[in-house]
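#structure-requests
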Amino acid sequence: YKNIGLAYEELEKYGKARMYYKKALDIFKTIYMNDHRDIAMALNNLATCYSVKEEEKNSDLYATVFLDYMIDSYKMYKRLKIEDDVAMAAQNIGAMYFDLEFEKETTSFL
């Protein structure tokens, strides 16, 4: 499902990509049950699909969902001590806060 999600994301069909990423996340959670890099990556993939503004009217909602998934991914990477992915997730969170002009939250991730 992850690869199908990637394909739809490349085709800019973000709704379908999110659907397949969610299925992949559910499967990974069933298989691993605890923190695992595949779960963190699935959260990251879902987050990136919400960072694209498909419709301006949903941009605030998408930003909130993006942050929820990305922060969960960040925390899991941190618990797993995967430093490169911790840095990538922190950068993505900081960039979204910056885009949303949340200065206080942005600097907390720097």
